[in-house]
Amino acid sequence: MSETVIKLENLTKKFGNFTAVDSINLEVCRGETIGLVGPNGAGKTTTIKMIAKILRPNSGQILIKTNGSELKDLQHVSSTVSQIGFLIDIPNFYNMTAYQLLKYFGKIQRYPKNKLENRIDELLMFFKLSEWKFERVRNFSKGMTQKLGIIQAILHDPDIIILDEPQTGLDPLARIEIRKYLRKLQSLGKTIFVASHMLYEISEVCDKIALINYGKIIGFDTVENLALTLKTSELNCLTLKPLDAEKLAPLLSRMVEKLNPYLDQNLDPNISKIPIKYNPLHQGFKLYFDGKNDSKGEILKILVNEFESDFTVISFTQPKTSQLERVYSQMVKGSTPEEPSKLKGDDIRNEQ
User: Fold this and answer.
1) Are 120 and 112 in contact (CB under 8 A)?
2) pLDDT tens digits, one per residue of 333-344
């Protein structure tokens, strides 16, 4: 079984009469990348601040596995500074140079002195901040400051990395760089906990998603398993060339006939009145199917073999982002402060 490294047990945080985090239960296993997703004010940052020991919970506890130990109550563990890296919300640094800041963080995080210079240079180079090494932070743009915040979180090579909205203020190229680096950290077996409202970024790097709303975890599983709660499943099929508009209607009828055993037989008319739609702008089909993995293989086989003279398939995907968007929308809209929506299925953990 996977080794649990962080465990939240009935974790609750109140500010006066307002309950920001409401008895949440969550387990993070070694090597997993977990995404914490929810609307503004859902409790994401409050949860992370409690893990960072910036805030104390009103009740419940945070258990953490430190080097060579069993799970222990975080409040009684003093050695976590060298094992966990944090980016909390929007970083706000003293007006020092990037080098001075990183050297300071490396020292308090107990990174080996003889390796610190090379480590700083390596990370500044990867995040394209080498030329700014000796510039004061007040001269940094918002995106550059965010990069510096991510660097300080991973500088000491921690086993557990917790990032709160790491993509904030970054341009598209920088977001690609962050995803690339997160995948590198994943390959090294790091445990990563990411809070974000950017569903695409989350779906690209996370093994599991924890949906939070009104301070409660309303769903926790892989994107694929969460998608089992949806009323329908989608496939996107792109073609090499645009289709002839005059031939489209009979082609769609023939496709529905051939693919009928694998299409959604109970398609909600509010979603779509037909199981296969063609988008000329994107040169592709959207197919509503029964959601089974075997069906995806059969659909692709039929499209390639029996429609070879009509079009050439160049892409065939079940997009994670659109799935997550629909899961997120459906579950967040379905939850209330009093009674959050429940996921169905034995594989989906929802410990309220």
Assistant:
1) no
2) 666 665 444 443
Rg for the chain (alpha carbons), in Å? 24
Q: What angle do CA 297, 303, 304 make, to 5 degrees?
A: 90
Q: How confident is the model at residue 275, as a pLDDT? A: 94
- Give residue for tokens 């979180």: 153
d(CA 186, CA 164): 17
CATH label of the domain that carries residue 144: 3.40.50.300
β-bridge pairing 191-196 and 160-164? parallel
Residues 51 and 188 in one domain: yes
The residues, ordered by sequence, that sit 6+ positions from 339 with a Cβ below 8 Å of its Cβ are none
* 130 and 276 together in one domain: no
Q: What share of the chain is helix, strand, coil (3-state, %, to 5)?
A: 40, 25, 35
| 344 in a structural domain | no
pLDDT of 113 higher than 80: yes
Nearest Cα neighbor of 310 from 259, 256, 243 is: 243
How does the average pLDDT of the chain come out, rounded?
A: 85
What CATH number did the domain enclosing 238 receive?
3.30.70
Which tokens in the block code for residue 51?
């893990």
Tell me, yes or no, whether 86 lies in a domain.
Answer: yes
In terms of domains, do 61 and 171 share one? yes
Question: Which residues partner with 289 through β-bridges?
Answer: 233, 263
**CA dist list (Å): 223 to 162, 191, 348:** 20, 18, 11
Write down the residue that tokens 């409690």 correspond to: 50
Q: Which tops the pLDDT comparison, 5 or 342?
A: 5
Q: Is residue 334 assigned to a domain? A: no
Give the chain's domain count. Answer: 2
* Residue whose C-alpha is closest to residue 23's, from 3, 50, 4, 5: 50
Indicate the pTM of the whole model. 0.71
For residue 142, the SS3 value is: helix
Cβ atoms 347, 225 nearer than 8 A: yes
Q: Which domain holds residue 303?
A: 230-318
What pLDDT, in 10s, does the model give residues 99-110?
999 999 999 888
